[in-house]
Design brief:
The protein has 16 helices and 13 strands. With 383 residues, it is α/β, with parallel strands linked by helices.
Length: 383
């Protein structure tokens, strides 16, 4: 089949869960013998990528677009508006059997082009854009609610819809999307990379030596933003007030990274590592006893499963997480994960897990159900 794949996430270079997911879907489609055209932002050599991955690239990069840009929301929306003209040129110049769209930034404008093509329309949701701002008091709630309903309802215009959690499927059904159109693909992690068997004891010891911690290591991996900053700060400070024998390492960046570092950098048992090359991340997770997800409770986070959870578990590391609906539904029954309803429960769970070894059960579960191969097979089989 001739397939057109569209996303506002750059295809290359890989820059996080969204772009990795795009790449893995395209890779799987090509391996199945499909003729794939990719229409995304692109900031690397077009010809090299086309030859290496056996795809056609029709990039659309009217301005720099990335998940960490300032004024991301308005720029994403403007990008989506402009993309419709790019999309129309593509479908008028080439006949495609399937159009695959990742998330609503492009799903909304591309839906306008459906009358001009006979292609099957497939939409893959990893989150709802409007829900990121759903709890922000400085946005009029009725406006956000309107945008969110519109974003979710656009799925009715598509022939097939993939979501990453049962909670997202339930929301779309409430918005009038036919249940038989919706399939849960889950989200994925590269289990051949996040593999505890590929990390040596020597490399783990080097990381511990770098950190200056021998044991009881608690790791946070990812963006430190408003949805995690205050809760994370309060948990570390309270554990230190109680003189608990726990050490913290923070890997990542984000808008509130410097704020958290300023609040905690003087504390002897915290290390702020900032950006760490992706290829080194598995060793740091392997060195940790506990991976934490201290997110606030909000509408968006209840619907998704954060990639860092899958990365922690793929390495067999125990996890403590805020009580988020989708994570509770998918993983709440397992002993390798603790759901914490408040900071006291979060602290108690860290204290319980701080001396734990690795969980073979966690690693095997991720390999069986949440590898990128498994996730993309569900999507490619369902097209």
């Amino acid at each position: 089949m001739k397939i057109l794949f569209c996303s506002n996430e750059q295809f290359m270079p890989l820059s996080g869960g969204g772009s990795i997911g795009n790449f893995k879907i395209v890779e799987n489609l090509v391996e199945r013998g499909h003729d794939v055209t990719v229409a995304t932002p692109l900031y690397v050599n077009k010809e090299e990528i086309e030859e290496k991955y056996r795809i056609h690239l029709k990039p659309f990069s009217p301005f720099y677009i990335h998940k960490n840009i300032s004024f991301r929301g308005p720029k994403y929306i403007f990008y989506g508006f402009l993309f419709i003209f790019h999309f129309l040129r593509l479908i008028w110049s080439e006949k495609y059997d399937v159009v695959i769209v990742r998330n609503a930034i492009l799903a909304i404008p591309i839906a306008l082009g459906k009358p001009f093509t006979k292609a099957k329309y497939v939409l893959s949701f990893t989150d709802f854009l409007s829900s990121f701002n759903y709890a922000h008091k400085w946005y009029p709630h009725f406006v956000l609610k309107l945008f969110l309903r519109f974003e979710q309802s656009i799925a009715k215009r598509y022939d097939k819809v993939f979501v990453i959690t049962p909670a997202m499927k339930h929301v779309l059904i409430e918005r009038g999307v036919k249940e038989d159109k919706i399939e849960i693909s889950y989200d994925g992690v590269e289990t051949s990379f996040f593999d505890p068997k590929k990390v040596s004891k020597e490399d783990v010891e080097k990381v511990k030596e770098q950190l200056g911690f021998e044991k009881h290591i608690v790791l946070f991996l990812g963006t430190i933003d408003r949805h995690s900053y205050e809760k994370m700060r309060d948990i570390v400070q309270e554990m230190n007030n109680r003189a608990m024998d726990v050490n913290f390492a923070f890997i990542g960046q984000g808008r509130n990274y410097d704020d958290l570092k300023k609040d905690l950098d003087h504390v002897h048992n915290t290390r702020f590592l900032g950006y760490i090359p992706h290829e080194e991340i598995p060793t740091y997770i392997m060195a940790a006893n506990v991976g934490i997800i201290p997110y606030e409770n909000n509408y968006n986070l209840h619907l998704i499963v954060t990639l860092k959870l899958l990365e922690y578990l793929s390495m067999g590391t125990h996890v403590v997480c805020t009580d988020l609906k989708s994570i509770r539904e998918l993983f709440g029954q397992y002993d390798f994960l603790k759901i914490a309803r408040d900071n006291d429960e979060f602290i108690a769970a860290i204290n319980e897990f701080k001396s734990k070894g690795k969980s073979h059960e966690a690693s095997e579960l991720i390999r069986k159900e949440f590898s990128w191969k498994k996730v993309t097979d569900r999507i490619c089989d369902g097209i």
